[in-house]
Each structure stands twice: as structure tokens, then as C-alpha cells.
Amino acid sequence: MSIMNPSWPAWECRDQTEQAEAYYNHHLRAKNRRLQAENQALKRLLRQNNVEWQSQPKGKAPSPSRRVTRSTTNQFSPPPLLPVEIQLGILYYALQSPHPIVDPLTKSRLDRMLPHEKSKRPNIAIHFLATCRAFLYEGNRMLWSNNTFLFTSPATLKHFAELDSCYRHQVQHVTLRLIARFYDDEDRVHRLPRTYHSSLRGPVKLTIQRRPKEKTLARRGFRAYAWYQLVDYLEALLPPHNPDLAAASNWTASNSSHTVPYPRLLPLLESLRIDFVNFTDDLFQYPPPQLHDLASHQLGCMLNELILTGVPTDECGTRVTTELSGLLKDEGLLLDHGPVMVGRTNGLRPLTYDEPDNYSYKVVRAMPLPPQHQLFDDMHHRHDVVDFPPAPPDEGEPPFSMYHSCRTIWKKVPLKPGASDEKRVWKLFDRISGLPWDDVQLDATMFDDLDDEEGPMVCENCGDIHPGALLPDELMDLYDDEP
Fold first, then answer.
1. pTM of the prediction?
2. Which one of 5, 21, 185, 447 counts the least CB within 10 Å of its CB?
């Protein structure tokens, strides 16, 4: 039995056994939908013929021979009614969970949940929705708009399309938990190195799904479902099929000009967090080309904020981060954090940091520049064909800074993953490089006093004098001389 990682990097794959299991379970859900439709049709037929399809137990009336007292009369009298505003206020707080709802509409798997998520179920009084039609209508709207949701597999995110589109339109933030899965057809141990996180006392043994050696030309050896899992998550965010919209558009093969674009799974999604679990350096190969097409084109420019945790720091992880930045709008905020959890044989375990600020921040495509200025921020995919609106500015009044100009932009950033909006702080960013101003201040202002005879440098972009003024075209070659 070999130890450590002689077979790294792992081949990227979608495991056939798990794909077959997912297909089987999907077939059962389709059969369940057909049975539900048949049941509704039978109920409708009974109602049309004035036949009660459900026997409702009637309350026992007081016997005439019994003595009528205050207790017996209160038993059958309706309770006092509260004002509608108070009822809706109670409903609002009763349907709001203090924790993210894990895998809504599906049964969660315990091996994909943290210990506190297993013990702290969402404290939601869901039975309010069965009280009356008014509570059902108002409660559904509050339930899906007032809570945040966490998905632990692409299948659970795809199943979210079963929810009516009017409720999916209200979801503005979700968290995707991407747990790398590993397979091997040999009896060997693979471990995460101790450098995965500073709190680890030693290497962590990975959970490996043993697969038999098949007499085929398929890939053998150590395999992983990692980047393909990310691709499947992004594909689940694509527009699902909407039969009502298809009927309304009156689409035919001969007349396709009347088609209406299908909305995405979450059309008003503003912020997305992706937690990468058990992703370490030199463990995976490069991501498939579908990642660029999904992140930078089909789902490009849709988010105001993207939070990534646990992305590897090697060249492969840097490429994935760059590709995922295509999801952001211009002036969108990209936050990269170290791993916040680790997957062990007995489940997930959280990881903590001694320092509160472990983020690396960046604002992508924050300054439109002419073609001759392509040396700035050229790593992020620019969209010149369609004019997309930039990310809206954060609410509130930022503090005063002498460095605030056309070159800088204020953003509210969290100090740790999962922090609320009240715990965010203002940070000044450089529009050109996208990095925090404190990190690039010396490089940005090095040419401000280039010409002592003519005075401070005038910004080529706005015409004002400010720190970090953009140089005219004839002086842009000075940046090329820098080592």
C-alpha cells in the first residue's frame, strides 16, 4: 500500500457509478411528478361532480341535555382576530431562519454538512403555510426572499428549478459547497498535506471511493470529480426549461423570431460564495474548457460580488480564479479566502484563522481604458460587444481620503466569511490594477512629480491633479521600463 501522492495529479472525470445513481433518482422524481399530476386530475374530477375527495371531521356539538357554561361556549367560538399587519409581522419572523437553509426542496446528506449544521436545523414555522391561502401566498414570498440557501451538490441546485420562477426571482445570494470527490482502482492512501491549513497537526487522509479495474479504454488510476463538479454547478445556473414561457412565446421550428429568452435559474442573483473543500496545490489538472465558456460568456457579468474560499494557490488555482472572475460585472468585487473547512472520513470539519482579515481583495474591470492601455488589468475577460451595466455602488457614506479620485473606488468588504453587512468595512481600491490602494500606492504615485518645472502631473483621464494621475500616451512607455 503506497502512501502520500505518487499518482498526483488526479485525472478529472465524472464517475460513471455516481452518474448512474443520479439518473436513477431523477427517474423516480419524474415518476413522482406524474403521480402527483394524476392525483390532482382525479381530485379535480371529484370536485366537478360535487363529490368530497377528503372527509373532514366535524366538531362535536354540545349536547342539549348538557349544561352550557363559559368553557363550553369558548370551545366553539372563534378566537379573536389580530390585525393583518401584526399577522404578517409574525409570519415574517416565523419564516426567517438564522442559518442558511441547506439543500432546499431535497434531503440533505449528513456527510456534506458541518457539525453545527446537523444540530441546528432551520427554525422555520413552515406549518403557517398550511393555515390558509393568504398565508400560503404571503408566506412563500417571505420564505424565499428572507433566507439564504446553501447547496452541497450540483443535483440539489438543479432540483431547485422545481420551484416556481416567481419565487426563484427573489433569491439574491446563494452558497455552493464544492467537495472534491476522489476515486481509485488501487488500494492506496492519499492525504492532504499539512500545509493545507495552519491548524492541521498532520496530513489528512482523503476519502477515496474504491472502483474496480475495468477492461476498457477508460481512464484508470487516481481520479477526481472536482473541476467538472464546478462546471456542473455553473450549468445548473443556466436557464431551466419553462413550459409556460415556451407556450407563451408560441415557438415553432419554422418561426423562431417570436422566442423569448429563458431567465436563468436565479435571475436576480447578486452575490455568490463558492467553498472549495479538499482542494490543494498540485492535486488537480487544469480545468476543462467549458469553465471559460460558462463563467465568461453564458453566465458572464451577472454578479456584484464573488467570494471564493479554499481555491488552490498554484497555477491551476490561479487560472480557475481568473475564469470565475468573468461572472462579475464591471467594478465587481472578487474576494479570495483560504480554506474554511476540510473533509475527513467522518465528515466535514470547520477551520478557523487567528487573524480576522485573511481575504485577498480585487475589483475587476473597474476602469474602462482605451486599447493602448491594455497593460492594466489584462487578466480579466473584457466584454466589448454588449454594454453591461457595472455593479452598483455600496450603500452608505465612505470615509474621507485624499487619494479618492477617478482612479480609485470605494467598496465595502467583509472581514471574515459569512459576515453580515453590518460588520463590513470600507476599503479603497485602485481602479486600474483592481488591488487595494494601500498595496499599490507607491507604484501608482511614483510619477506624480516627474517634471519639477511644470509642477504635479495632470491626469490624462479627468484633467485634474490627484495622486496616481494617469500618464499621457507618450509617457506610458515608462511602465514598460520597470523590471
1. 0.82
2. 21
